[in-house]
Amino acid sequence: xxxxxxxxxxxxxxxxxxxxxxxxxxxxxxxxxxxxxxxxxxxxxxxxxxxxxxxxxxxxxxxxxxxxxxxxxxxxxxxxxxxxxxxxxxxxxxxxxxxxxxxxxxxxxxxxxxxxxxxxxxxxxxxxxxxxxxxxxxxxxxxxxxxxxxxxxxxxxxxxxxxxxxxxxxxxxxxxxxxxxxxxxxxxxxxxxxxxxxxxxxxxxxxxxxxxxxxxxxxxxxxxxxxxxxxxxxxxxxxxx
Length: 241
Hints:
Keywords: Signal, TPR repeat. The protein is mostly helical.
């Protein structure tokens, strides 16, 4: 499993809503329960300053500090809000591409962010079954959003379901073929490469990592894995010779 610190920084680097961005967006109180509106602020102490943050921003701050359990407690009310919405006739939907499907109720982006962070926190805490369930629910809320599928594939891999992980990574790569989704396609291809190398398919793993570099040319993980594959292949050839 990747180190928590690295995963948190990857999350923050690609996250659609920064702490500053969250605070700058007005609350849509009609669509959110009080615990997950921007207006419902909590106090988070940092070494340099003390300020009120929304639950989403506060949870990100806590996770960055390695306090995933505290972040999870802060995000749990989001599940109650979602469960309440699921009782209606319209299907809850997390919108990410600007389009609106028929027969759905578009959820406030802050609620979707809270649900995603909750799933991420569960993964970090090693609650693998709960994390898989939460991420499967997110893919149902937004079935065309590759980011959720990439994280679900990782959760499958962490739980030992390599077949499920491979299928989900491939699906994520297909979803991420649209413009602007390259980073998710690259992440999915890196996941495929990892699984292939794990089962001894160095050629397949190498191809997946090289394909990922077409979308993310400077990615250190892919570059490092290609070096590892080259060393492993050289060692095997030397041993065979």
